[in-house]
Specification:
- The protein is 24% helix and 27% strand.
- It is built from 5 helices and 9 strands.
- The strands form 2 sheets. The protein has a 5-stranded mixed sheet with strand order 1-8-7-3-2.
- The radius of gyration is 16 Å and the shape is globular.
- It starts with a strand and ends with a strand.
Length: 184
């Protein structure tokens, strides 16, 4: 099985100007090579048949992606309208400023099949393409952000995958994201 780091994931996980909340201590090429040379600890089913999650022990100093919201840090939450790419419409996002989470124990790599990436207009030669990565304390998936579920339901024209919203999964995601936030 071959894995390719897609341009979409590359710019998010390895931005030109490094940020503390992205992958540390490794280049995009080293990241892709590691995924191709090391078996994951486990493989999880993603939110659709074309999506798989490969769980790897964190080999970097990358920090956890989310922080629990508490009365002691709620004042550090910020929000703004942002787009992931130039083509996408901005959506409301929130994050912490001024917190530093622990180093993640796991990197949960989000993979899409070659066929799905071709459908979305991003063909690859590899079997699977990296579209994202979760940095976690547990070897499990963080629930997809509700806005990502909505974007997916809008279809590939709006930067999504075309997968409809599952109402129960959406409610569980809202519960998680009300109690946690990303950080910068």
């Amino acid at each position: 099985m071959s894995i390719f780091l897609t341009p979409f994931a590359r710019t998010r996980l390895f931005p030109r100007t490094p940020r503390p909340n992205t992958i540390r201590d490794c280049t995009p090429e080293q990241f892709e090579q590691h995924l191709n040379e090391h078996e994951p600890l486990k493989v999880l089913d993603g939110y659709a048949p074309f999506c798989k999650l490969h769980v790897h022990r964190n080999w970097t100093s990358t920090r956890c992606l989310t922080v629990p919201v508490t009365d002691g840090n709620r004042h550090l939450l910020r929000s703004a309208y942002e787009a992931r790419t130039r083509e996408e419409l901005p959506v409301l996002v929130r994050w912490f400023e001024g917190v530093e989470p622990p180093v993640a124990d796991y990197l949960v790599v989000i993979l899409y099949s070659r066929e799905q990436l071709a459908k979305e207009g991003s063909p690859i030669d590899a079997d699977w393409g990296v579209v994202g990565c979760l940095y976690t304390a547990e070897p499990a998936e963080i629930p997809m952000a509700p806005i990502t579920m909505m974007r997916n339901a809008l279809g590939v024209e709006e930067g999504g995958s075309g997968v409809p919203i599952d109402r129960d999964t959406y409610r569980r995601a809202v519960e998680f994201w009300e109690a946690n936030a990303n950080w910068r």
